[in-house]
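cache lookup: miss for this entity combination. No prior model stored, computing from scratch. Input as submitted by user K.M.:
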Amino acid sequence: MFKQILYTQWKWTRLPLLVLLLAAFALPVFSARGASAAGRDNWLIEQMLSSLQSWGLVYPLLAGTVGLILARSTWSADHAGKHIYALSLPVPRWNYVLMRFGAGATLLVAPVLALWVGALVATVATTLPPSLQAYPTILALRFGLAAFVAYGVIFAISAGTNKTAGYILAGLGAVLLAQLFLDALGFETLFVQSLLVKLVLWPGPFEIFTGRWMLFDV
Amino acid sequence: MCDRLRRAAMIASLLLGATGTGQAQTVAEFRQRLDALSRLSRRISDTLAVLRRSPVRALPVDTIRIGALVVVAAHSVSDHARPGVDSAWSMLSRLYGARAGAVERTPITLQYADQKEGELPADEFREPPVWIPRHASVNEVAARILAGASPAIYRSVDPQLQEWVPHPYAFTIRGSTSIRDSIPSGLFAELATSPWRSTRECFDGRLDACRRALGISGKDPVLDWFDAADRRHYAENHLKSLPASQSRYATCRSGDDAACIALMRLAPRPRPEPPLGVTTRLLLLALALDAGGRSAFDRLLDRPTDPLDARLAAAAGMPVDSLIGRWRARVIAAHPKTVAADERAAWGAVAWGVLFALMALRSTRWR
């Protein structure tokens, strides 16, 4: 049954997945353009690292997009069919949800592999100065983990009803409004900021998205 | 009161002068007496300045005196400020030794953001107030006091040292977030990616190159710290807008090393900027003072005409290569966190992903 679910999810997502594969492959290749020049001229190292750092913002964004698209498409057919197909299956809900989750997570491997291959190609094509190192495998692994977290969040939200998603969005909106209201009254309570810090710092769920995402680094 | 002090100063000056006229004096003795007079005059001016703080004296202010450090704070905040003053003095005296006494001449006024007494009135005889934010910690108060007090000590050091490290604030060296304890990871990146030849050689482990990169050795910095390519880039980065030398600049850019050397010698700075930045140099100074103990700063200033490597070695009480080796090891150990997520973060991501999946199992759908 898992095979069937995996196959149907592949059919639903193959087009966006293809675009994501291309993007994942191209990202390290594009980001490393011009890096070889720094291998020949030490005066270009700083500029090269700075350029790589700018590209570094795109990796977590792409990881988030991969997770979002795969998680959304995992549930889209069930939502459209009012879950009749799922209810007609002779399996308990938890089993069905786990199979859906597993199928989406399996498809997640493809963009990670594409990024890894792209990073390896970029590394082989670049002559680095001796003080710099390439991190193709670790970059791909981190990309995979970030995509997995994003996939998990969106999967959990999408698994619920529209009402649940609405509650979550309303909750976030209420927090923002409360912050604006308190700011207007002159209170120095920065709970949105501290909430964000808690989300992106250990043990927050999005810690993996932060830090330096550079294929070549010291 | 002021007239009495002035009269006392004049009498003291006359007495000092009179003691000097009774015997033949050498130039050195004359200079010594002149220095003594200048010091006395400065002390009198400072005392007058303190006495004439009438606008502040009219307010409920407290004077906190710990060691030689004099801090004026509004009465409502003085209890809060006291531990910070204590900590600041302790750092000053540990770092600057006997020279920390120089802070006595410049009382520090603290201005808390929300103090009951409001803003203390400005006074031409005092340094501008040191602002303390609301709910500042002891460390923060100490750091701000040190930033206000350190220049009074450091401005009296020799020009060679001042040029090498312009602002060695005590808190940067001794405080809870001091540079010797938490080395910025940028220093490793600087050492690893710097284009200057001496820095690259230092990264590879050559200690003599480290000395040149730090700007503490070499008879002729223009020739010893840089090679021909470095000099051309130095001219491009630092001397492009040097007045009346545009033709020489163009010749230098075209690859004429002699023109680059001449251009660097024309620069207004007596010595070129060393290849490694001021923060890396500050770390070396911090390590030297740390290793040398309480009188390290005095030893550093003892021989102002000696080369900096010899002075730092004297301050640290160890051979300069041992000091440089220690400095290099600390910089290399401060390797920045690269893309490699640590194991904890990786397992954290897996755990969160699984947790979200489990949350999906408990969805309200189908209930």
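stored under new cache key. Chain A has one domain: 2-161+210-217.
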